[in-house]
Amino acid sequence: MAVGAVVARILTQYSDKGTKAAVKDIGKMEKKFSKFANATAKKFGLAALAAGAFAAKIGYDAVKAAMEDQKSQVLLANSLRNTVGATDAAIAATEEYITAMQAEFGIADDQLRPALAGLAAVTGDVSKAQSLLGVSMDIAAAKNIDLNMASKLLAKAYGGNIGALKKLFPQISAATVKSKDFAAAMREISGETKGAAAAAANTFAGQMERIKLAFGEASESLGYKLIPQIKSFADLIINKAIPAIQKFVDENGDKIAAGFKTSIQYGLAFAKLMYDMFSFVARNIKVFATLGAVIIAAFMGAKVAGAVTALITGIQAIIKVMKALRTVSLASAAATALATGGLSAAAGAAAFGVALVGMGLAANKFNKDSDKAADSLGKFEFNAKGFTSKADDYTKGIEGMTAATKNLTDAQKEDIAVTKGLNALKKFGLSSKDLKAQDPVTLEAIRRNQVKQAKLGISSPTISLLASAGHGNIAKNTTSNGGNITVNVAGSVVSQGDLINGIKNGLATLMRRRAGSQFAVL
Amino acid sequence: MEEDTRIILTGIEPTIKALKEFDKKAVAKFNKIVNTELNNAEGAAHRLVDSIQSRTTNTPMRNWRPTAAVSGRTWGGAGWPAWDPGTIKAGITVSKAQRRARKDYTTSAGALLNTSDAGKVFELSGRNKKSGSFIERLNWFGKASRLVWKVVDKERPRIEKVVEKALEEAKRELQNHLNSAGKVD
Asked: Could you tell me if A303 and A52 are in contact, meaning their C-beta atoms sit under 8 angstroms apart?
């Protein structure tokens, strides 16, 4: 086509090249968006995690601050009621006054409240206390001391002890100190202190402090709002999670225990069950750790690393509980969780879930293993929500459980050895009541000694002292029957030495009669 | 021109491209119909050039020189395209070239081109400037759009109907081939 030609179109057709190009471009753009979105999602995820951790930190601090603030308020209210008989309205007005002072002078309410309470106790009047609190703030600012100290000095001065205040303000005259004239003392120091608090509050440092306190107030407000959530969460743990565990143990613990107790393989079976559960937890510990971190971030938050550690601790706690088939420690764990601001609670909740799942899987696995076994235990069932398993044949699997002994602890092995040693001594008339020793080696030594003595045909000699008829010669009244020695004691024995010598002489006589060379007894 | 009433043929390119794989004769048949119509239009334009002449010369106007002027002092002088019917007719051609479309657009499937300078002057003079002795004299041959556009405006409805019919036929042929090839359920 020539450039600049006049074109008269006869046939026209629709071209969708623009649409195709647009679709192609959109496809490219979509890929770019997708790529961008993925990258952003990852970054956002990290940011969200960090933000979540930060938010959790803020939340934790806020709750803590609110709790402390609440405690401070209660203490002041109680003090005002006791000292000046303040009404609820007066206490509320005082709180407003405290808040205003904090905002105006940049002094934390936690410092203002004790100071005001102390001054109210001295003056017996809230209005006077408030007035003196202002003077205290001026003194604190002028002399660069904390408000608590300033208010105590002022309280002493109000009570007549102006000497302490004079150490801080030498301009107070001796006459004033002597006359205990508090008003005169105030006049003498007013030139130095008047307006000091306001001036300090308007400095840069003072303003920064005010900003900091304002943020603190906001944080406390947030904390007050979070406290009900914390309480709800704690209630959930106490009223839902713990009862669920309790119920499970109540319903199944006795069945499990009763079933196992009838079998001498109780220890082995229980160890196998525990081993399976522990093994499951160990194999999936990363999953649990991740799950725990997510739960921590989703609910109460906390530092992720700390959460993982807490989770593992929680799992270990549950394992201990399950090991003993007791849930006593769970209630105290919840109390600990409350005290730690929910950190342990979250980990505990995760641990509960983990433990339940682990128990379920372990029980199912145990059930499969025990399918091969004979049943001398009868039927027992797991009624836990989410799984139901029956073990009809158990003891037949003793052979199969031989491998489980490999997993026994040293302590369990020692217990078995002790039982074996005690059983071995039963034939010699000795039981665990007669023996203090529980060391398998010692028990074996005793057994060997018993065997040796049995072979010798002797038994341990006994000495009997009979206060029966006889003459006064102990030696003559000493007789021997086999290994046993009987001494008839008649008349008076002056001392132990006489008794010993008498028996000794008697035995010597007996030995001579039997042509023995010596005796070793006594 | 009748831009608003123009018939837009859709699917020429893909239909012909697909049909070419099954039945090249059908494609040739379609192309022959299109080419015939275009050539007829081209011939009509050529004949129109031949018919243009003033009362005294074979040019539109007496002073529109048939050869290039040496002097440039008059409007028929140097730089002014000479009226040469042969050159003008040679410049009137047909085209089936697709114009580049950067977005959805109705583009030419067949067109008449007027490429010579004299032909373009004669074709377009008076489209914008409506008065003047030159325009008035040219209007004796009709308003602007005096060559190819004149032919096309007159013949296009008929040509489009013919080509559209041929295209529908080609589509049917293609469908038959596709059905017989089992490519469509």
From this structure: no
Q: Which residues on chain B are in Cβ contact (under 8 Å) with A7?
A: 95, 108, 111-113
Pairing of strands B92-95, B8-9: unpaired
Flag whether residue B146 sits within 8 Å of chain A, measured between CB atoms. Answer: no
Distance CA A296, CA A320 (A): 22
What whole-number distance in Å separates Cα of residue A118 and Cα of residue A152?
Answer: 7
Q: What DSSP string describes A30-60?
A: HHHHHHHHHHHHHHHHHHHHHHHHHHHHHHH
- Tens digits of per-residue pLDDT, A89-138? 888 888 888 888 877 787 888 888 888 888 888 888 888 888 888 888 88
Q: Which residue of A has its CA nearest to B104?
A: A18
Contact assessment for residue A69 and residue A113, using Cβ atoms and an 8 Å cutoff = no
In angstroms, the Cα distances linking B77 to B70, B125, B129 are: 7, 18, 21
* In contact, A269 and A405? CB cutoff 8 Å: no
Check residue B87 and give its pLDDT: 92
DSSP string, B122-142: HHHTTSS---SHHHHHHGGG-
pLDDT in tens, A38-61: 665 555 445 444 444 444 444 455
- Burial label for A30, CB within 10 Å (0-12, 13-18, 19+), is exposed
**Chain B residues 7-26 with CB within 8 Å of chain A:** 7-13
Nearest CA-CA partner of A393 in A384, A380, A382: A380
| Confidence tier at B36 by pLDDT (50, 70, 90) | very high
Q: What is the pLDDT of residues B73-86, one digit of tens each?
A: 666 666 778 889 99
- Phi-psi region for residue A518, left (φ > 0), alpha (ψ -120 to 50) or beta? beta
Which residues does B135 contact at the CB level (< 8 Å), separation at least 6? B125, B126, B129
Contacts of A95 by beta carbon, 8 Å cutoff, 6+ apart: A73, A76
* Contact yes or no for A311/A297 (Cβ under 8 A): no
pLDDT given for residue A457 in this prediction = 55
Q: Say if the Cβ atoms of B111 and A10 lie within 8 Å.
A: yes
Separation in Å, CA of A29 to nearest CA in chain B? 18
Q: Which residue of B has its CA nearest to A19?
A: B104
CB pairs under 8 A between A and B: 109
The mean pLDDT of chain A is: 63
Domain limits, chain B: 10-180
Q: How far is CA A63 from CA A53, A225, A234, B131, in A?
A: 15, 8, 14, 90
Q: Give SS3 for A147.
A: helix
Tokens at B124, concatenated: 């377009």
Sign (positive or negative) of CA dihedral A49, A55, A58, A59: negative
Tell me, what's the pLDDT at A89? 81
Which DSSP state fits B99? P
Collapsing DSSP to helix, strand or coil, B4 comes out as helix
Length in residues, chain B: 185
Q: Are residues A12 and B7, on separate chains, in Cβ contact within 8 Å?
A: yes
Q: Is B63 exposed, middle or buried (0-12, 13-18, 19+ CB in 10 A)?
A: middle
Q: Are strands A484-488 and A478-481 parallel, antiparallel or unpaired?
A: antiparallel
Q: Do the Cβ atoms of A154 and A161 come closer than 8 Å?
A: no
Q: pLDDT (tens digit, 9 = 90+) per residue, A320-343? A: 544 443 343 344 444 444 444 344
Rounded CA-CA distance A173/A182 in Å is 12
Task: Tell whether the torsion through CA atoms of B89, B91, B92 and B96 is positive or negative.
Answer: positive
User: What's phi and psi for A451, nearest 5 deg?
Assistant: -65, -45
Residue B3's contacts (CB-CB under 8 Å, 6 or more residues apart) are none
Say if CB A507 and CB A480 are below 8 A apart: yes
